[in-house]
Amino acid sequence: MLPYGRQSINDDDVAAVVEALRGDWLTIGPTVDRFEAALAALGGVPHAVSVTSGTAALHVAYHAAGIQPGDEVITTPLTFMATAAGAALLGAKIVFADVDPATGNLDPAAVAPLLTERTKVIAAVDYAGVPVDAPALRRLARDNGALFLQDAAHSVGGALDGQPVGSLADLTTYSFFPTKNLTTTEGGAVLTANPDLAARARRFHNQGFILPGETPRLDEGPWLREIVEFSLNYRLPDVWCALGLSQLRRLPEFVARRAALKARYDEALADLVDSHELVLPGTTDNASPAWHLYPLRVPAERRRAVFESLRSQGIGVQVNYLPVYWHPVFADLGYPRGLCPQAEAYYRCEISLPMWPGLTEANVAQVVDALRVALSV
Ligand SMILES: *Cc1c(COP(=O)(O)O)cnc(C)c1O
After folding, report:
1. Measured between alpha carbons, how far is 85 from 88 in angstroms, rounded to an integer?
2. Is any ligand 1 atom within 6 A of the Cβ of residue 346?
3. Short-list 121, 146, 113, 69, CA closest to 340
């Protein structure tokens, strides 16, 4: 089966991990600092906190934002559950706003009427790797006394108006899961330009220990590092930060390859668009996407048959995503279907074609041939 996504690990990556394994630290060592500095440089902000997953990054970011029971978080339904779960775990009420059908990204015009004095965070996802309209969403948040969080699990390495993803929001989260744009096996990060948000994120990802430079309240002796809040251990080990550093050096090449594959698919699918009512992935003029997915849309009534045909032909397609509030965990709370019609329509038509740096031109031709067969069934 040709997978929909796959990591790219080369000899340099392996050597970096082996070196870290043979070093003095397996975790909490100097490679963590180096990886975080490199992530901050990539995102164009002073602070990056590495964590054990993109899900952990969201939990940490919502904690840093000060989410408490009764607060409201406005987000997109066209995402992975973690975008909502991180805030729900802290007691927030999740409010879903609809997406722009061109990109699948949260629509600022749909967010505006949902703002209340309880809204603490607007959380958007750069669907498929296309950056959201961050300036508009950030303005909406700021004018309402809220924060703007960008779940950039798909868009690491992307930019908007020449500004890197990481610098566009109050808080940005990355994922380094194997199918994402670079990998540390499991892993993620929280980026911010705000030193207070950075400090809150850093304490929460590491047991609630006070940070270097903070004034201790206890005077027990040089052995004590005091703990000031209930927290978790979300630390990313040195070994995996070494992999991350090596992968970061390759990220520009990965992003370029993904862009080339996106163009190749567009070209190869062009003659099927009208005859089979396909919709190819959309972007915006000012975006430099990092194409994590190739989200093709087919007529809704044909989606299942096309999906099954592709799978039976060895093409490992996926669907991204079931509207988050259709999952029983939200449906059981009373979230009705029909809440966000554009997101639901997007979902009903969507099939993600294979997209990863090691995919060859021949693989793309193979996928498109299989799609031709699937569409003509
Ligand atoms: C992958 C993903 C996450 C979660 O990241 P993990 O590293 O798998 O925990 C969160 N949000 C989106 C949009 C994702 O695609």
Report:
1. 5
2. no
3. 113
Cβ burial 271-304 (10 Å sphere, 16+ → b, else e): ebeeebebbebbbeeebbbbbbbbbbbbeeebbe
- What single letter denotes the amino acid at residue 6? R
Max Cα distance, the chain (Å): 76
Q: Is 82 in the pocket of ligand 1 (CB under 6 A)?
A: yes
Q: How many Å lie between the centroid of ligand 1 and the Cα of residue 180? A: 8
Residue 158 CA to ligand 1 centre (angstroms)? 16
pLDDT digits (tens, 9 = 90+) for 57-85: 999 999 999 999 999 999 999 999 999 99
Residue 338 CB coordination number (10 Å): 7
Would the CB of 188 count as within 6 Å of ligand 1? Answer: yes
In whole angstroms, what is the distance from residue 326 CA to residue 78 CA?
11
| Residue identifier of the C-alpha nearest atom 6 of ligand 1 | 54
Instruction: Find where tokens 């975790």 sit.
Output: 27
Q: In sequence order, what are the beta bridge partners of 227?
A: 209
**pLDDT at residue number 377:** 76
How many whole angstroms separate alpha carbon 68 and alpha carbon 62? 9
